[in-house]
Amino acid sequence: MRKRLCNTAGKTAKCTINACLSEVLANRLAVPLSYLKQNETMKKVLITGANKSIGFETAKQLLDLGYYVYLGSRDLKKGEEAARQLQSANVQAIQIDISNSQSIAEARKNIGELDVLINNAGISGGFPQSAITTGVAVMREVFDTNYFGTIQVTQAFIDLLKKSPEPRIVNVTSGLASLTLHSDPAWKFYQVKSAAYGPSKTALNAYTVVLAYEFKDTAFKVNVIDPGYTATDFNDHRGPRNVADAAKDIVKFATLGSDGPSGIFYSVDNNPETGVSPW
Q1: Is 197 labeled as catalytic in the residue annotation?
Q2: pLDDT, tens digit, for every residue of 82-95?
């Protein structure tokens, strides 16, 4: 007896070619058809500076939630190695140096759809940073990445985000960006002052307020998230938080529902109770 091509033939008088082909492909790939259909419409996210630390962990968590991840890295080889470590067909390394406009333009050519933008890449400029002795060249370098670079990336990809039914922008900031807390001697980080890094994040916060306002009557959700004092290469692994918990805060705002907030500064370090930090 000839083996039936697909189960559909036994259920109806006529087995359509498309139904049979779909079943055969699903069986050969050993993947449920429901997954194949989901894969066609999965949300897509670009994470800058995602080849290590918090960015890498954020990519991992979003992959687990079913997102397609564009893993942004200034060094493409490092990005490709990070992508291999994630062991997923739903991740693609993208070379992007956010302080270089040409690099951003090239990255834009390689991405056709986008639902979420996570501006995670940033630099410290080195510490300590005295207001008197820190060179202007260092300050410009930090601002070119943390502030102007983030703006360039946002503007380059905003057209794609506008096409998404639920666009999300997460700008990764620092608790040290709060001017209110920097003026409070009782704040636990009051003694931690920096002439370049902190102010660059304060400026980023200000930009985010304006950006969120411009999209206040749309489906956009735009927020700044402080991952907290986390042990990474950025601070010689001295922070008390781990990258998994830090990434969870970013992922929370990258996946906000339609009733989620927009235009807030979220920092568990600054406000352990609600997470809403003073500006």
Answers
A1: yes
A2: 999 999 999 999 99
pLDDT tens string 9-40: 444 433 443 444 344 333 433 434 333 334 55
Model-level pTM? 0.85
AA identity, residue 50: A
Q: Residue 177 and residue 145: Cα distance in Å, rounded?
A: 15
Decide if 10 is inside a domain: no
Of 67, 147, 197, 207, which is the active-site residue? 197
The string of DSSP letters for 196-210 reads SHHHHHHHHHHHHHH
- Tally of domains in the chain: 1
Q: 119 near 153, Cβ under 8 Å?
A: yes
Q: How far from 96 is each of 29, 101, 277, CA to CA, in Å?
A: 33, 9, 30
SS (H, E, C) 6-50: CHHHHCCCCCCHHHHHHHHHHHHHCCCHHHHHHHHHCCEEEECCC
The domain of 222 spans 42-267
DSSP annotation of 177: G
SS3 (DSSP) at 148: helix
In a domain, 19, yes or no: no
CATH, residue 155: 3.40.50.720
